[in-house]
Structures are given as C-alpha cells and as structure tokens.
UniProtKB/TrEMBL annotation:
This is Alanine dehydrogenase. Substrate binds at R15, K75. Pfam families: AlaDh_PNT_C, AlaDh_PNT_N. Residues 149-297 form the Alanine dehydrogenase/pyridine nucleotide transhydrogenase NAD(H)-binding domain. The gene is ald. It comes from Aliidiomarina soli. CDD domains: L-AlaDH. Its EC number is 1.4.1.1.
Amino acid sequence: MLIGVPKEIKNHEYRIGLSPAAVREYIANGHQVMVENNGGTAIGFTNEDYIQAGASIVETPDEIFAKAEMIVKVKEPQPNECKMLREGQILYTYLHLAPDPTQTKLLAEAGVTAIAYETVTDNRNGLPLLAPMSEVAGRMSIQAGAHHLEKAHGGSGTLLGGVPGVAPAEVLVIGGGVVGINAAKMAIGMGADVTILDRSLPRLRELDDIFAGRVKTIYSTVDAIDHYSKTADLVIGAVLIPGAAAPKLLTREHLKNMKPGSVVVDVAIDQGGCFETSKATTHQDPTYVVEDVVHYCVANMPGGVARTSTIALNNATLPYGIMLANKGIEAMRNNKNLLDGLNMHKGKITYKAVHDDLGQELALDYIDPLQALDL
Ligand SMILES: NC(=O)C1=CN([C@@H]2O[C@H](COP(=O)(O)OP(=O)(O)OC[C@H]3O[C@@H](n4cnc5c(N)ncnc54)[C@H](O)[C@@H]3O)[C@@H](O)[C@H]2O)C=CC1
Ligand SMILES: CC(=O)C(=O)O
Ligand SMILES: [Mg+2]
C-alpha cells in the first residue's frame, strides 16, 4: 500500500505520524511511504533519516493527499486537509469528532474511511492508541499547572510542594484514568496534597493500592466536586466517556467559590472539555482567566514535547497501522479492537457515541461498523 505522511499544520504541532523507525517497519512489510518535505525536521527527524528508512520525500501535502491510499497523521485533519481526502482512502489519526461538527461534516462529504486513534480498543478495556498521549498530557498537566500557579504567570503564587513549615498545594484530579494517574504521580513527586475523583469504584480501588495512602481517592459526585474544588489550588480535568463529548463537571459557580489565582487544566478539552468555562487554547497562547481562575486548555498538549510524544505514539500505532496497510479495510473485519476505531465510512457515522452527539445536528446516518465494511 502507498502510505502518505503529511507535515502537521496545527498550531505548534511538531509531532509527525510516522517516525523513521516506523517507516522502516512499513517498508519491511512491503509498503511504500511518502513523507512531506521537512515533516519531522523540527524534532530531529531529517529528510535524510526518512530516506535512509526507505521513504520518498514529497514537496507538497497536495501530492500526498492525492496519491496515498492511507494517510497517517497525528492531529485531526484541518478543514483544508479534509477537503483533500476522498472515498476509498484510509485516514488513520486522532479525530475527536464528538465536539467537532465542522470536521465531522467535512469527513462525511469526503467519504473517507476515518479511523480514530482514540477509540481503538484492546482486550483489557483500554484505549491503547490514546494511552501514550494521555501519559504525556497527564504528566505535563502538573508542569503546566505549577508554572501557571507562579505569580508572574497569573497564578496565586503557590508552590506545589510547599516548604517545611508551609502546607503543600492541594491538587484535585477529576478522572483517575491514564491522564489522572500520570498527573497524580507527578503531583506527588512534587510534594503536593493530591485528591483523585473517579466514578469507577474498581478504578478507585486500584489507585488506592498503587498509591498506598499517598492520595485521597473519592467517589465522584456533584457533592465531592463542590467540596474539593473550594480549597483546590490546581484542578486537573481528566474524565473520558470514550468517543463522546465530555460531561461538564466543574461549573462557573464552582469557580466563584475557588481561591483567586487557582489554576484549572482541562486535559479533556480535546473531547470538548469537562469544565463549563473551558475553550480550546494553543501552545502559543495557552491560558485565559475566568472568575479569577487561570484556565489552561491546550488541545494538543503532547505536541509541546513532540519528540518524546512522536516516539511514544508510534510505539502504539505501529502494529495496527501495519495491519491496515497489509489488509486494507478488511483488517477491521477480523479485528474487533481495530473495528472500534472506525468512526466514519463513505459518508456515514460508524461510532455510536459520535452519532448520539452529532447525528441529528448534521443529519448524518449511523451504520454498524461491520455492516459499513460491506457498503
Ligand atoms: N489535551 C490533550 O492534549 C490530551 C487530551 N487527552 C484527553 O484526556 C482525557 C482523559 O483521557 P484518559 O485518561 O486516557 O481516559 P481514561 O479512559 O483512561 O480515563 C478516564 C477516567 O474518567 C473517569 N470518569 C468518567 N466520568 C467521570 C466522572 N463523571 N467523574 C469522575 N471520573 C469520571 C473514568 O471512570 C476513567 O477512569 C480524554 O478526553 C483524552 O482524549 C489525552 C491526551 C492528550
Ligand atoms: C490525544 C490528543 O489529543 C493529542 O495527543 O493531541
Ligand atoms: Mg473567585
């Protein structure tokens, strides 16, 4: 199969869909790979590295989108990229469709077969292609929070770990999945006082075992959010209902009761955000203030550490990508985990939670993903 890897064009997004090492694997499996000129240069993956791995370098994204049978990316296609996609072509990338009617409509018009990294599953109820970026974003959320708690960056002037004689900051993590546990690890490492809310009791039990008394685990209710947000210096939004728009758990009313200069980091912003007052921001201009609370809502946080993130992402996406390249869309017929990634095919929505959020608004039909393969 002919694989195309365009350069990412989102604000300060330096990740790339395939690393040179991943390209070598595709080539070893008998495929051809085109990489856009200087697609990885910003993170030290030069054209020469890609050529040595067996790829050809292509000058323009137009040529890649026109020729490739499968496009491998990182972030959701931007409107001008959506317009270059077509029926019969596979798009393999993060999509986050539920909060994004514009992209969903454009992908439907293109008729492309769109596989979303964030909904591919494994056999242990995990999301293996989301997990590595959630690890990165969870860890970064505490770095970002600590930075913005500094006075000069808009915060209250609070040090996460405190010092002997001064209490540490309170960190509230809402959602104890992959982002949540990684945030908690970093916050504990910096000496903060950490509380994790989740609505899964089995998950809270696991966290309790892992952290052995070093964090408070609390069942997530409106009451718990009311109570713990009041005293929190830093709140991390880390909930997920796979494929669906995030529930709004922290409201403007909560902010009014928080300490001025507190910081909220809404990692779930790529699914629309789990705070009422969240709106997506960029690495260039990451924060804004509402009710005296600093909001950090960068939708592509791992792009900030693009080299680490590209390697981590490729470790996870490679085996599924090779399956797709080897067998085309038929790869999904015998692999339920990969089929779970199918969000759109030939103008129809194939992922239930996306259809629940957008189907009516966009007048788009839902079709069972397995049946969709027969269209
Ligand atoms: N902004 C960015 O750059 C990035 C954003 N993300 C996003 O971060 C979010 C979290 O991802 P993961 O940790 O991988 O998901 P996950 O599925 O591992 O964890 C989500 C957790 O939220 C919990 N949850 C669901 N509803 C809840 C509620 N009402 N209260 C408390 N907990 C609740 C679930 O039980 C689960 O434990 C996703 O939206 C993901 O797309 C991930 C990576 C990068
Ligand atoms: C998951 C996601 O949104 C990202 O890595 O940018
Ligand atoms: Mg206030």
